[in-house]
Design brief:
heterodimer; A: Immunoglobulin-like; five-stranded mixed β-sheet; 5 helices; 10 strands; disordered C terminus; B: mainly beta; four-stranded mixed β-sheet; 1 helix
């Protein structure tokens, strides 16, 4: 067994400038990886660029990543450097406990706290700005949105959640209802999300739109379509047995194709649309289900005033 | 307590916990209704005939008062199962004998025949595309495969009719019923859930609990095989 131990008070004659070395290593790696990520990976980061909110959210994710990556690299660089330079087997390395080397480094501590504080505060400001500038970033803003698009032409689409399917009403085309969600490209869309029973959540992934569907609540979310293509809609609120099957695929098509589809669907479903309740922003769910009267609320069954569509918006 | 005593206590408690987990999994999670296989009884490419009935109360089993579906297996026997195996890319001719009463739909959208061949269904041999659920006896149930965009309203019968089926399923053809027929073509292989869009779980809030939330009652799987 070796009896040799390093003298804790001993110091190499010429101690290298470790902090400068670590900084330079960190700077080089970060300067290489950050642009590589932003330009090569960034354009492919979900949710893509199908809508204004998707594009902005992708940008936000990329900004978050290129800020977080240097922090990660800094920690790993320090760790790697420590393992190499201050491993116990290396000659002249002081004992890990006690001695001058364990007293801490004020400038490193202050620097770390200052930099990370700055990053957190900057991201708070950046996130708030991005939320406002993108009219809610595709999230549901409730019935009275604070941030609204200023465009003159906004297409309202009502999303109706029910166990276990989303259906869609188009008030500007006579209020027809469809199982399909088709949207025109290059158009501001206002999704009015509501439910006829329990709480669902409308999540149009590639559109980067997500809004809870609550009964008797008109939850509004905005986006502007940019590119044509398909997107997936899923319910993201656990809502019962067939929650996992509560999805559908939508399409963003050209404006001309959209108008053709909407008019054709309006004509095909005209007979059923007459039977639907007048378009309303929210509806009173019928708690009775089938064969009413078995239910605790004793709502009169079959009453048109108690079923879907009874409640009209206050004008 | 000695070390041996503590070990014994620990092992007993562990055995109880493991036993409860196994019991729960076996009892509540793994049981599936038997799959009724329609893939073997038909020649390749020929249509599959699917005959189903909806009953107001199944009349047997764990939940005899629950509304449910019955299906006629390839041998012609009525079976209580909602998991049906059918071939891919094949026309399915569906005949549903509807023995239950009806009501207006919570969402009249489900009064529209959707996704069937020709976008049409027939009620007692009369074709229809839309059914007004506020008319007649309303809609009893729907047969819907949401992921395929298929939905057909199953028109209700008079719940006070003399010949209303009050016996255990299957109901006799002499009982009051409507016959709803339609066809659709299966997609590629996959497991497609189907359900009813009438909240017919009586006694459950919003009508979507009980039979509406239990496989083998008002929902199941269309198991489309290659």
């Amino acid at each position: 067994m070796s009896t040799e131990t390093a003298d804790p008070t001993s110091k190499p004659a010429t101690e290298p400038r470790h902090l400068l070395r670590i900084f330079l290593i960190w700077l080089v790696i970060s300067a290489i990886l950050d642009p590589l990520f932003y330009f090569l990976v960034g354009p492919h980061v979900p949710p893509g660029r199908m809508t204004s909110t998707a594009e902005e959210n992708q940008f936000d994710f990329n900004i978050l990543f290129i800020i977080a990556l240097p922090v990660l690299i800094g920690v790993w660089t320090y760790l790697g450097y420590s393992i190499v330079m201050w491993r116990s087997g290396r000659k002249g390395v002081p004992e890990p406990v006690g001695g001058e080397a364990a007293r801490g480094n004020m400038s490193v501590q202050v620097g770390w706290i200052a930099i990370t504080s700055f990053i957190v505060l900057f991201l708070a400001g950046f996130g708030t700005f991005e939320l406002i500038s993108t009219n809610g970033a595709g999230g549901g803003e409730g019935p009275n949105p604070i941030w609204k698009p200023t465009g003159a032409h906004i297409l309202p689409v009502q999303v109706i959640g029910q166990q276990w399917k989303f259906t869609y009403r188009y008030p500007t085309f006579g209020g027809f209802e469809s199982q399909q969600l088709i949207l025109p490209a290059g158009t501001e869309i206002a999704f009015h999300v509501t439910s006829l029973d329990v709480i669902h959540s409308f999540w149009a992934y590639q559109l980067s739109v997500k809004a809870d569907a609550n009964p008797q609540v008109d939850n509004v979310a905005f986006t502007k379509t940019r590119q044509s293509g398909s997107f997936t809609v899923r319910c993201s609120e656990l809502c019962g047995l067939w929650h996992g099957a509560m999805y559908n695929y939508g399409k963003v098509v050209s404006k001309q194709a959209f108008v053709s589809w909407a008019r054709a669907t309006q004509a095909v479903t005209a007979r059923n649309t007459k039977l639907l309740p007048a378009f309303a922003w929210t509806y009173v769910p019928d708690a009775n289900g089938a064969d009413g009267g078995y239910y605790p609320d004793n709502v009169v069954p079959y009453s048109p005033s108690e079923v879907y569509g009874a409640k009209q918006p206050a004008s | 307590m000695s070390f041996g005593g503590r070990m014994a206590t620990f092992l007993v408690l562990l055995a109880i916990v493991v036993g409860l987990v196994v019991f729960s999994v076996v009892t509540f999670l793994t049981p599936q209704p038997a799959t009724v296989d329609f893939t073997g009884a038909q020649t390749s490419g020929s249509p599959v005939n699917l005959t189903v009935q909806t009953v107001g109360a199944i009349g047997f089993g764990d939940h005899p008062t629950w509304v449910s579906y019955m299906v006629k297996d390839p041998s012609g026997a009525w079976v209580h199962s909602t998991v049906w195996k059918v071939p891919a890319h094949t026309r399915i001719n569906v005949t549903i004998d509807q023995y239950d009463s009806g009501s207006p739909l919570r969402n009249q959208q489900w009064g529209l025949v959707q996704g069937t061949t020709g976008g049409i269904a027939s009620l007692n041999a009369k074709p229809f595309r839309v059914f007004d659920s506020y008319s007649g006896n309303g809609v009893g149930h729907t047969f819907s495969i949401p992921t395929l965009g298929i939905s057909v309203p199953l028109i209700g019968v008079d719940g006070n009719a003399k010949a209303f089926c009050n016996s255990a399923a299957p109901c006799s053809v002499s009982a009051t019923h409507n016959v709803i027929s339609f066809s659709f073509t299966t997609p590629g292989p996959g497991e497609y859930p189907w359900q009813c869009f009438v909240p017919c779980g009586l006694g459950f809030l919003f009508g979507n609990g009980g039979p509406m939330s239990t496989v083998n009652y008002m929902g199941g799987f269309l198991d489309v095989a290659a």
